[in-house]
Each structure stands twice: as structure tokens, then as C-alpha cells.
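thought: fold this chain, then report.
action: predict
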Amino acid sequence: MRITNKMMTNNVMNSINRNKNKLNDLESQYTSGKKIQKPSDDPIIAVRALKLRSNISELEQYKEKNIPDAMSWMEVSESAINNINELIKKMNDYCVQGANDTLSVSARSSITDNLAQLKAQIYQECNANYAGRYVFSGFKTNSSLTFENGSQDIKYNITQTFAGADIEKIQKVIGEYKIEDFKTSSTREDFKESPLLNEDVYRIKLAYDNLDEVEVSVDTQPYMHDIKYMKSTDEGAYEPKNGEMIVIRDTGEIIMNNDTYAKIRDFKEDEIKIDYQKTVFKTGDVKPEHYFNCTSTNQYGDVKNYEKATQDIFYEVNFSQSMKVNTQLSHYLGNEVAREIDELITVVQDVENVEKKMEEVEKLLADPNLTATQTKALEAMKEQLSTEFVLKSSIMTGHFEKGIEHTNDYQTSLNIALADLGSRYQRLELTQSRLGEQADDFTELLSTNEDVDLVETYVNLSSAESIYTASLNAASKIAKNSLLDFI
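observation:
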């Protein structure tokens, strides 16, 4: 086959162009550090790079944003629960002191003052929030767990359920005397009846006191009971008859005797249902919507229905992996602490009142104008007040002892919450660590897929430069020879 000059020239130009393209590709790789400059250079590398970058972006979202946010939520929760636990521990210490028989009533009064302060602080901790969201309120993160400033504008119709095991036996002193009784007394015989300790008393303690003056429904089917409404200060308020339940609105108690209790003591959870209404709430009272099935009606007549339910908030922390971040404090701590402290304060005040009555009797006995009959009557009254003092002191000591038991129970419950929170936090840490390792692996894969070996690329680039220079030299020699040179 005849080789013409044009054929040689075309072959040389094609070779030079190929060498120049190769040199250009290697120069681009060396300067950019990447194997390809556009997807069309190598579609396989481009597609793999997109997938790897997407994976790394998702890993960074989980590792750098979702998990730290979840951890911060849990840290706020843990800190608040730890604070509550410490406050409960202090309450336990005060109850231990209060149960000491050698303490005076005034000393116990100081203890209850401290307990009241601790109670207020506990319910402030219940309103812990993270980034403006309340952490203990389930899905209702815009609503604090307790009333921060009290409330008198919203009427709640609350349904509270109990089991027979929730009914507790209590002691009440009956047959008390007042100083006014002396003024109407004419003889020692008027004080011959001693105050007695009524132990045939059982009660259901509601979550709130000072209920509204409306009907309270007590459902203990199939047993029917007469409902009687009284105040705690009314005579006979703690002396229920057979088949009768006494509703004491000011203390939030349902009172029954042993006969009534025997009929319902074996009721299982939620088999005793009590419906009542409350409008006035104190600062620190828990909001009913977080604890009970209830209906609220505001001053404009707007009605909202709430159902008690588990409301777990989940964060996505990994591919197809979600984790619960919140703790519903209603599962571990209710309004019982506040009710316990309020009752302790009441029983201490009861004993203080008896002391004051005894002091007033002593002052009356010091009156030189008393007749012999009046003196005997006062002496009889003093004796009965001493009996009342002993009985109420015994009840007071018993309440402090119960306080020890109950605060221990609260601590156990809170420790369970902390253990659950701690285990979830550890899982988050392990997930974060694993995501960090995965991010490193994907980054390495991305580098292997995209990045060039600079040493190898430099060697290839030098070789390509030499080849390109050689091709130019060869072309210069071929181009200067033609047929004219030989004519």
C-alpha cells in the first residue's frame, strides 16, 4: 500500500492530539487531585461518588445534629431528675428527724416549713425545659407539667381511677374539746368523755384538695354506696356509717368504714372510678391533662378533651433506627409528694393547736376569781387535752414514719427513671461512636473512589510530557521532508 505524505501527516497529528489529551487529563488530575472532572469522564466513579456523598451527609446529620440534640434533651432530663432525687432525699432526712419522739412540736413545725420549701422546688424542677420545650410533658412540649402561677380560669372535670390496694387506713381523733366548751360548761362532768382514736377509717386520697362544690361521682360497681358531703372540720366527718362514703372536698378525701372497705378492697386497677371537678389550682399543682383523663373548659367556653396515654418522643439517630429521648415524669412522680407534705403540715398544726389550747387552759387556771367548780372543770378539760395531745402526737409521728417510707418509694421510682434514661444515653453514645467509625469508612471509600495517587499521577504526567515532546519532535522531522526536496 502506498503511504502518502498526507497520510503520515494525519497519523502524526492524531498521535499528537491523543498525547495532548492524555497530558491534559493527567494535568487536570494532578492539579485537582480528582480522578474525574465531570461525570462523563467515568460514569461509574461519578455514581459511586454521589452515593457515598449522600451516605456521608446522612451520617453527619445523625452524628452532628440528631444525636447531640437527643443527648442534650436527655442531659436536661437527667439533671432535673437528679435534682428532684436529691430533694426527695432531703425530705427523707427531715422525716427521719420528725419521727424522733424527743423533738418538740415547734421543732417539727420548722421541719414542715423546710419540707414545704423542698416541695416547691421539686415542682419547679418538674418544669425543666430544653430549647423552650418542656421535657417531661410528653407530646405537649409547650405545656409545663405543673401550674407555674396557679390557675383559676380553667375548669377541669377529672376522672381518676383506683384499685382496692390504693385505699389506705388512717387514724383520726374524735371527741375533741375546744376552749369555747369551757364557757358553756358548768361541771367537771362535762369533760368526762376522753377523746378517742378512731381506727375504723379508710380513705381514697384524690390527687387534689379543695374540689368544686359540685357532685362527685364514685363508681364502685356492683356495690352502691350513699354519698355524703362534709367538711374536714365537721363533726362526724371521719365517722362514716355502713354503706356510706363521705366526700370531703376541702381535703380531697373519700372516707369509708371497714364494712365498706371490705366490699371493694379486692378491686383491681381502674375498677374504682371517681369523677370530680376542680377550678382553683395552686402554684406547683400538677396539670390534670398530664396525669388523668379529663376535660378542660376555659372562661370563653372552649372545651378540650385529654386522654391519659404514653407519649414517647423518638429521634431518628441512624439509618432505620429511632430512639426514645423523653421521660414522662407522670409515670414516676405525681402530686403525691405535695399531698404528703400538706398533710404533714396539717397534722403538725393539729398538735400545735392542742398545745395552744393547753396553754390557754393554764392561763385560765391562773385566774384567782375562778370558782371551785370552774377549777375542777378546767382541770378535767386539761386532762382530756393531754389525752388529745398524746393521740395527735402519735398520729403526727406516724405520718413522719410514713413519710420515710413514701420518700424511699419515690426515690426508688426516680432511680428507675434514671436507670432507664442512663441506658438510653449509653446507647446513644455507642450509636454516635459507631456512626463516627462509619463516617470515617465512607470518607475513606470516597477518597479511594475520587482521589488520585499524586505520586503515580506525577510519574504518569512526566511520562506523558516526554511522549508529547517526542511526538512533536517526530512531527517536525516528518513535516519538513516532502517530494519537492527530491526533485
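thought: worth noting. The mean pLDDT is 88.
final: C-alpha cells above.
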